[in-house]
Design goal:
The protein has a 4-stranded antiparallel sheet with strand order 2-3-1-4, with helices on both faces. By secondary structure, the protein is an alpha+beta fold. Helix 3 crosses helix 6. The protein has helices at 18-22, 26-36, 50-56, 61-77, 82-86, 91-106, 121-129, 142-146, 151-154, 171-181, 195-198, and strands at residues 9-16, 39-46, 111-119, 165-167. The radius of gyration is 17 Å and the shape is globular. It binds inosine-5'-diphosphate (IDP) and magnesium ion.
Amino acid sequence: MKGNQTDKTERTVVLVKPDGVVRGLVGEIISRFERRGLKLIALKMVWPTREHADKHYPSQDEWFSSVGSRTVDFFKEHGVAVKEHFGTEDPIEIGKQVKGWLADYLTRSPVVAMVLEGFHAIAVVRKLTGSTYPVEAAPGTIRGDYSVDTPAVANAQKRVVKNIVHASGNAQEAAHEIEHWFNPEEIHDYKRAEEEAMF
Ligand code: IDP
Ligand code: MG
């Protein structure tokens, strides 16, 4: 019994990060995706090695810069001197520091990795996940319902913003992350009972 795939069907990766796992939010998070109609097609718990955690995120300047620029903008908006926290105002250098913290963080406890499939799944999952900084995330999103963490505190403590879940940011990240976390035989194709009723 195989699923009903179209050219709008996408696959995307979600990780329940260490804070989500140790807070007992795994079931709650999966159920939010399931009830929206996204199909869980792969699932496992992994305690990542440092190398595995490091290779999850891109190493291109473009990614460092997008992470660092958001941080700089947030600090400017809140009137905090970014240089005091990072020793630099260069978004790429800031992005690199954050990436180092991410590798520390993702190796601290197990994470739960999953692949979700559905129409426009990458964007839909990002919406359910919410903005990167929980303090700015809309109520009703995972990050907006379960946290108020903020870079203003995280950066002073030289740690990541704890935002409960990771979700692939675009098709390129999704393709890399699916391959990074799962072997092909760990990804399953089946039909959900309500597919005919919903679509
Ligand atoms: P995303 O998780 O919403 O896609 P990215 O820009 O890909 O956000 O950043 C990856 C992760 O890096 C975030 O989820 C967050 O945990 C962490 N992070 C981003 N910016 C900062 C920061 O300024 N300080 C600390 N951690 C940060
Ligand atoms: Mg991202």
